[in-house]
Design goal:
Shape: elongated
Strand order of the largest sheet: 1-2
Mean pLDDT: 82
Number of domains: 2
Number of strands: 4
Largest sheet: 2 strands, antiparallel
Order of helices and strands: HHHHHHHEEEEHH
Amino acid sequence: MSAVSELSLRRDPIRLLVSRGLWRSVWYLLGYLAVGWLLFAIALSTAVAGAGLSITFAGLPVLVAAAAAIRWCADVERARLRAMVSGPVAGRYREVVGSGIMAQLRTRWRDPATWRDVAYLVGMFVPLLALDAIVLAVWSVLLAGITLPIWYWAPWQTIHGVRYHGYDLGYHPNGPHGPGGWGLYVNTLPEAFAVAAVFLILFLLFNYVLVATARAHVAVARGLLGPAEDPLREAREVLGRPGPLAPNSRG
């Protein structure tokens, strides 16, 4: 499997922050949140419609069209994947042998590449979407926390007729200094700067989590959407090499 380009985790936090790998990771994960659900809906709906209509002869063209739609969805993901990896990412599909609907149907749905596409587009949709969404949500909160000194004064709430301004990092039912509360109520500029410094440290560290998430997502996509690799390829190459007793070898 080809290495993920520029998604190295060996950089220090500052170098990682200004690296292209971090921001490519952000765009890759955001892109999946934007288009992943659409590709999932297309792949699932066409496959279900084709399977439901396959009991009649009229449903066979729908199954062929479903395979084509699934391949198109996989190609969309491959186009996004090319910006993240080096090496080939194109799938290897079987050529249709023969003519007619039945020949296309047999070839498309007996092709392991089609089922790998389904596994990624449908089977992996929920876990990948949940992982990407959670990581991006935490990353966004930490990023917003760095800017706290700019807007800490804007939020407000009225408690017992008194209006309080500030950002509540906890629970204060009786105001910033009232009893029964916990956490930090940021309502002064020094407090905002102190909290922003903590958010900055956490943000720099969490960038490693975000890049690692992108690497994991890319690895899954590359493994399912890329060309299938023969697990015995290296062993076959060793067996295919001339040995010490081969006719052309010198004793």
